[in-house]
Amino acid sequence: MAVRPIMKMGEPVLFQKARPVERFDTPELHALLADMKDSMIAANGAGIAAPQIGVSLQVVIFEVRNNPRYPQAEPVPETVLINPVLEPLGDEMEEGWEGCLSVPGMRGLVPRHAKLRYRGFDQYGKRFERVVDGFHARVVQHECDHLMGVLYPMRIRDLHDFGYTEVLFPELAGKDEDD
Ligand code: NI
Question: Which of 95, 99, 148, 167 qualifies as a FRET site for 111, CA 20 to 30 Å off?
């Protein structure tokens, strides 16, 4: 398939609510997912949402395994998540550093629910659900925010905790610049 250009913050599509997928296991959906995966891998992303390549549909993918942009993160299984619904479990929030392919070269400290259940569909229309915490929970919340037109800088509590990767995390400098 193809590496597609990734939309950067300021593009209207990133601030729109995405539409649900109505038909599964179609050539169009498989092609979209292949392009999302190629684009995510090319940019070393931990995940990507369809609006980031300009398609306003409720489709996200994510996977974390030896990712140079997130060297400390625990692994997250390769997942296709369509029409997701998130349900926080408990009141606990955790702050953690995030980046985004649509906000290249920057990191911010973002509060997220520590534990949640998510449900949705895979590309074949098979329904599934998981209970997750840690970085997995963070990635799901970040990617599903994209489907509601929310980018992580909009959730930072104190903008002192937002800055350039090369300043905040010099050891990661260069890893964020190729998108
Ligand atoms: Ni993002």
Answer: 167
**Best CA proximity match to 86, nearest among 143, 21, 46:** 143
* pTM, to two decimals: 0.95
Q: Number of structural domains, the chain? A: 1
d(CA 25, CA 14): 25
* Separation CA 101–CA 104 (nearest Å): 5
Average predicted confidence (pLDDT) for the chain: 95
Is 143 tagged catalytic? yes
Whichever domain contains 117, its CATH number is: 3.90.45.10
Q: Of residues 143, 166, 171, 177, which has the active-site annotation? A: 143
**Which domain, by its residues, includes 24?**
12-172
Average pLDDT over residues 57-76: 91
